[in-house]
Each structure stands twice: as C-alpha cells, then as structure tokens.
Amino acid sequence: MIAATDDTTVQQTALSKQTLLGRVPGSCLIYLMRILYLSPRQCWPPVGGSKLRDFHLARALGQNAELTYVYFKGEKGIPSEEFPFCRNLIAINKPKPYTPGKIFRGLISRTPLTLINYSSPEMAAAVTELTRNSRFDLVHLDCIQTLSYLKNLPDALRRRAVVNWHNIESEILRRYAVNTPSLAKKFYALATARRLESLERDALRTTLAHVVCSDRERQLLLEWAPDALIEVVENGVDTRAFHSQANSPRSRVLFVGLMGYHANSDAAVWFAERVWPAIHESFPHWTMTIVGSDPTPQVRALAARSGIEVTGTVPDVKPYYNQAIFSVVPLMTGGGTRLKILEALAAGVPVISTSVGTEGLAVTHGNEVLIADHEADWLPACSSLADQGELWRNLVAAGRRLVETRYDWDILGQSLVALCRKWASA
Question: In 129-150, which positions are buried (b, 16+ CB within 10 angstroms) versus exposed (e)?
C-alpha cells in the first residue's frame, strides 16, 4: 500500500481471506484476479454517462476480483462505504484543467490537451509505487485520458493493460469542429483530434485489449488496427432503479444530460431555439424541462423563454421521468452510446432522438424510439405521442423489454468479468 500524503488518500476495505478466491458454477474455487483500475474522475455519486459506466464496471470487477481503484477525487472523495467492493480505494487530487498554460501546451506539443488536462505527478507517483510493491494481473485504464500513465507501469504490466473506451475522442472533436461556428475553436479541435488519433492508434497496438461501447466503434477501431483485441461491453442501466408509473400526469418534454458538456448544451440551445417554439404553440400546456448539472450560461438563459425550465443538478431524476410525455435527444455531435436513452426506456418514457443520439444502440425507428433527423421532423413526432395512445404504449413496452434483456448493468458487468478472466489467464 502506498503512503497517504496531502495529495493522496488511501482507504482499504476489510476483505477476508476468502476474497482471494472466487466461485464458479459447481462450487469450484478459482483464483481471484488482481486488477489495478485507473479512473480520470470521481464516479460517486454515479450521475451522468461516464460516471455511471465507470461505477458499474468497477463494481462488477470488484465483486469478482481484488480491485485497487485509483481516481481523481472531487471535493470530498468517495466514501469507502459506497465502494465496499474495493480492496484499496485511492483518491488523488484532480489537476486543474484548461489552464492557459495547458491550452498552449496542447497547441504546440505532440500530447493532446485531452491528456494534458489529466496529467498529475501525484497520480504518476501513486501508479509507480503501487506497481512496484504489488502484483496485478491486469490494469484497467478507464478512458483515453489515463493513457499517459502507461509509462509509469513496468514493461510487463504495460502489456497487461486494458483500455475502456467511453468514446472515440478524436471522432468527438472532429464532429465538434464541423458544428462549431468559431474558426479558432474549429482549428484547435481539428489539431487536437489529429494528435488524439495518433495516440489512439498507438494504444491499439501497444496494449493488451480494448473495451468499447458499441460494435460501430469496434469496427471503426479495427479499421485502424485489424489485429487489435477489441470487445464490446455496451452501456447500460440499472433497470431495478427505474419503474414506469403509467398513471402519472404527464406534461413534460424532458432533456436529460450533463449541461456542461458541449454536445448536450449545444443540442439544448438548438432545440429550444429552432424546435420548441412550434411545439409550444401546438401544446402550450407542456413544459420543456432541461435537467443536468453545470448548465452553461447559454443553457441557463433558456429559462427566460416561454414554457422552458432549467433545473441544474437534481437529487433524483426519476420524478422527472414519471412526469415526462417523452424524452428528447436532439444531439448533433458527441460520441459513444447515450445512457440517457437507456434510462428513459427503463423508466417507461418514449424517446425521440436524432440518429447521432441513437448511435450504437439496438433501437429502430417506430419500434423502441422515434428518429427525428431534421428540424421539420420534430413536431410531427411529438404530436404522434401527445395522446399517449397505442404508439406511445408500444414504444414504452418495447423499450423496457429491450433494456431488461440486453442493457441491464448486471448482465453487462458479468460480460466484462468474463473477458477479464480470459485476458488475465492468457
């Protein structure tokens, strides 16, 4: 165990000797893997797509392996009682991102800003000491942002690294560059995307294996590195936490997402300015509710418009789903697969989305969701669900059935555990 300092907090959960063994069907005892898990975020409380994926995958691994979880902490860090599945829970102070110096380095150096923002001497020292004094079967690198810590691993362990891709980051930045009206931001995004792609291609060649959110992303990465070991573990939802309340009065058009993230904030502004006026005129008793933390000034300003409310952070999103006629996902940029869609389906709320919003999910127009790719598509789609009739009920039933059978976190977590066992024994 590494020593605690002002910058590093180490918590060790009490594990019995039995945790060195796991059980498989037939009560056969097996060796419990030892996994070092590096995260660029504090995933507790698990609110928002990246935090949810991080938390549920870590929990699945911790319940089936001896897990050391190292992360950049928020203001208070993760209480150890919320991570009872961790052998060691190690908090590192998060470096301040997007400083002028880091932005300049991201422009002139070969290292993209995406990694520079998460560069930390304290994290590097923790990784070095942990891997010097403990043996691990695998290293789980959660997101591309942690790739810079590969150099702190011993050579043998570097070849045992598994990268969890929440998105293809270079793809996100290229999409952002296409959609931003700012020439300066467009230039910076494209320059960063080129550096990121080079780094992503190198990671595909030099690490053991990779986990992506969809087969679409797997195929894209295989075009770069046909021999790379890439498996799909999709995003999911805790289906037991969401329950449809069919008789609830519904008058909300709901948009859920982290509103400090450009893809969500841009989509909220576009929808409010270009689509909502016609919907509000046709259905004046409806309210467009934008739920999500850290809304940008542009998103906060939408609350001044008729029929729109901006909540910021809420303690629980489920009451908003229970009051929603449908959920909208008007995304034009971004990447990965959207947990906001899976949550809505689990909550029994129909979804209207762009094709970009549904990328990577096993949904089709008219079955589990409605697709609206053009401004003119939105009002007819919304109107078709206004009476909560047969189409509304069919979407609710099909959506709930899909998440229960394919996208429940328990199912997905076991899929990751099985892959890690195979890779650890290779």
Answer: ebbeeeebbbbbbbbbbbbbbb
